[in-house]
Amino acid sequence: MQGATPARLYATLVGGMLAIGGLLGFFYNGHFGSGHDVFGNDRSVDVLGILAVNGWHNIFHLASGLLGLAVAGYAARQYALALGLLYVVLAVYGFILGPGHNLLGIIPVNTEDNFLHLLLGLLGLGAGAATPAAPARARIRTG
User: Which residues pair with 108 in a beta bridge?
Assistant: First the structure.
């Protein structure tokens, strides 16, 4: 088990936040459609008037958050680096698509989502980089 490291803190705090956010998102919108109805109306709902969500978005946050909580004790660095890279890629892709579009055709994002994903991604990459790859071993003095 790892000691207190930036990656473990990231996995625990961000994982918990994503899991709670994923659950709360279902109270706003649990629809699993493509994001638009047959008339072209956007079916996503903005949580607190800020972040666009639907059922797929909620599932993604819930799953990635629970994964972080599950691996915080033994694979926090790998989680922080992988989730950080994933969120940076999603943010860049979201910025390229522009507001009102869906990632992979099913996950709604807006500018606020893209900035949040970028922030979480950069924090994850930073936490992973600030955490040593292998724990320091105790040295035994002979003499």
Answer: 102
Residues 6+ apart with CB under 8 A from 82: none
User: What type of residue is 126?
Assistant: G
Structure confidence by residue, pLDDT tens digits, 76-130: 999 999 999 999 999 999 999 887 778 887 888 888 889 999 999 999 999 999 9
* Average pLDDT, integer, range 29-51: 57
Give the closest residue to 2 by CA, choosing from 80, 66, 63, 62: 80
Which tokens hold the place of 75?
Answer: 């694979």
* Other CB atoms within 10 Å distance of the CB of residue 100: 14
Place of tokens 């994002």: 109
